[in-house]
Write a structure and sequence with these properties.
It is found in: Mitochondrion inner membrane. The protein is mainly alpha-helical. Helices cover 73% and strands 3% of the residues. The protein has a two-stranded antiparallel sheet. The longest helix is centred in the last third of the chain and has 53 residues.
Length: 581
């Protein structure tokens, strides 16, 4: 136990120091307007050389700073949360591998090393999702890894197409070759790959299923690592993508994802799945503003969202821990009376998610929605943005009503406590960042303020839809809490709307059944059937029969010589008799 605690502390210490080093380095790069491009020659043979490249600019270093801050908090949090785990060292090593894969992806200007980080994220996420090793975890792990393999295949195809340019350093070609046909193919493949990693429609089913992982992993995955990899890749390829028409399809798909996740979260009762669907909604927001060409706004929201989403998952983990490992929000209630500090962190992170003024989410979300209002878009995209913003407030108020206002519904003898100081310290660090990171980043990232000129009502539209969402969320929760269960919106439609528009059945379980069934038949009839008969097993049987015959001759050679001598003498005698006659 002593060793595992020391491993947690050492990992936390090094990641935190790395975060401070990145912060100083990022400020230096920003102040001097510098980009550092490093190349390390691994091997050189005749005219071929294998190089490892690193791109260190303000964006990659700032993102690494946020990843290391969140992962250090998560590891410190795991020291208490996973204290009953026998293999805590294995868990910490898996988390560190996960973080290392993300760092490799962040600093890579080369599509090969990006693929190494990308695939590393997929493989380690599978190990973490199936960590508890039960049937639910195995199903969720297979769903996660098979969905992400589509993105891996897209990146492999990008690697193949980039052979046309003589180098895999994509950063040299995104500006110069953007009109080229090969680059249009590459941009399409990159967009599909990013859609799988960031769980856009129709690849959304794996993200709520990945909640089978331990809660510290969920905090890491949903804030700054796995799901943000697709967004970050599109940010890096932004100059290329804005030249293609395929980006308009991404705008529509990401808007629908944002809306679908908001609707589904309103009819979900699993605490972790509600927060997972809110992540899906925010990913749709990032993807959609990115597809409009505002990559700096997408990156800004990516960083602010990482802070309060990690805190939200940590609070949820602590509540689930205290609720006897129960995740159903209908059993919770009155938490603000029993665990005030955790409730404070939960409420502030939820309000930051909703974009309440002067918290972290407000600075990025408000700016994005005002840029949408000013842009030349059709009404459908406009309505998708604002409905989704209202739905965010809707499911947040519903969740807070169930958790804080409702009466306590678990066992009457159960004691709640708010004294786990290891968890609280890591949560309070992220609480501070959820309060101040929005304003800090808005000063750092933007060289000049965005000048947004809008009519008065359009300027206040965000506040209008947020207030409407809050009002509807409170009303719906009160109807549920005070037993008006027959209300049609909450009773009849909930079973349909919580299924994410039947996406798991349509694009995952329905497709998987046919493909896995085909795979089983192919394995039975070809791999273990005809190919075995005519290749492996067939050759083995022929060789075995011949070797038995040869072995018989070798082991019985004296008898065979004598037998052959007798046969030969009989033959000679028979031949002589015929010859004499």
């Amino acid at each position: 136990m002593k060793n595992t605690n020391s491993i947690c502390f050492i990992s936390f210490f090094f990641l935190f120091m790395f975060m401070l080093m990145n912060m100083m380095f990022m400020l230096y790069l920003l102040m001097n307007n510098m980009v550092i491009f490093l190349e390390w020659e691994i091997i050189s043979f005749n005219s071929m050389s294998i190089m490892f490249s690193m791109l260190l600019d303000w964006m990659s270093v700032l993102f690494m700073m946020f990843v290391s801050l969140i992962s250090s908090s998560v590891i410190y949090y795991s020291k208490s949360y996973m204290s009953s785990e026998l293999n805590l060292t294995r868990f910490i090593i898996l988390v560190l591998m996960f973080v290392f894969s993300m760092m490799l992806l962040i600093i890579s200007p080369n599509i090969i090393s990006i693929f190494l980080g990308w695939d590393g994220l997929g493989l380690v996420s599978y190990c973490l999702v199936i960590y508890y090793q039960n049937m639910k975890s195995y199903n969720a792990g297979m769903l996660t890894v098979l969905s992400n393999r589509i993105g891996d295949v897209m990146l492999l195809m990008v690697i193949a197409w980039m052979v046309n340019y003589g180098s895999w350093n994509y950063i040299f070609y995104t500006d110069l070759m953007c009109k080229d046909f090969s680059m249009k193919i590459i941009s399409m493949l990159i967009i599909i790959g990013a859609m799988t990693k960031s769980a856009q429609i129709p690849f959304s089913a794996w993200l709520p299923a990945a909640m089978a992982a331990p809660t510290p992993v969920s905090a890491l995955v949903h804030s700054s690592t796995l799901v943000t990899a697709g967004v970050y890749l599109l940010i890096r390829f932004n100059n290329l993508l804005v030249q293609t028409d395929f980006i308009l399809l991404l705008l529509l798909v990401s808007g629908l994802t944002m809306f679908m996740a908001g609707v589904s979260a309103n009819y979900e009762y699993d605490l972790k799945k509600i927060i997972a669907l809110s992540t899906l909604s925010q990913l749709g927001l990032m993807m959609s503003i990115l597809s409009m060409g505002f990559y700096d706004l997408a990156f800004f929201h990516l960083l602010t969202h990482a802070m309060f989403k990690a805190l939200l998952f940590m609070c949820a983990g602590m509540i689930i821990h205290m609720m006897n490992d129960n995740q159903d929000i209908r059993y919770m209630g009155g938490l603000s009376l029993y665990i005030p500090v955790t409730s404070l962190c939960m409420n502030i992170s939820n309000l930051a998610l909703c974009g309440i003024p002067f918290l972290a989410g407000f600075y990025s979300k408000d700016l994005i929605l005002e840029m949408v209002s000013m842009s030349n878009l059709n009404m459908m995209i406009f309505y998708l943005y604002y409905f989704s913003t209202g739905l965010t407030m809707f499911y947040t108020m519903r969740m807070l009503m169930y958790l804080m206002v409702n009466e306590f519904n678990l066992l009457s003898t159960y004691n709640l406590y708010d004294e786990d100081f290891v968890m609280l310290k890591s949560m309070l660090l992220l609480l501070l960042m959820s309060l101040i990171s929005g304003s800090l980043l808005s000063w750092l990232i933007f060289n000049y303020p965005y000048m947004i000129y809008l009519p008065f009502n359009l300027k206040l539209m965000v506040i209008y839809v947020s207030l409407m969402g809050m009002l509807f969320g409170m009303l719906m929760s009160l109807m549920n809490l005070y037993s008006i269960n027959k209300f049609i919106l909450t009773y009849e439609l909930s079973s349909y709307l919580s299924l994410m528009w039947f996406m798991p059945n349509l694009f995952t379980y329905g497709v998987n059944f046919k493909i896995l069934n085909l795979g089983q038949n192919l394995m039975k009839n070809i791999d273990l059937g005809w190919s075995e008969l005519y290749s492996g097993q067939g050759i083995y049987k022929i060789l075995k029969n011949y070797s038995i015959i040869f072995n018989f001759f070798q082991m019985n050679n004296f008898k065979i010589y004598m037998y052959s001598f007798v046969l030969w003498m009989m033959f000679m005698l028979f031949f002589n008799m015929i010859f004499i006659v």
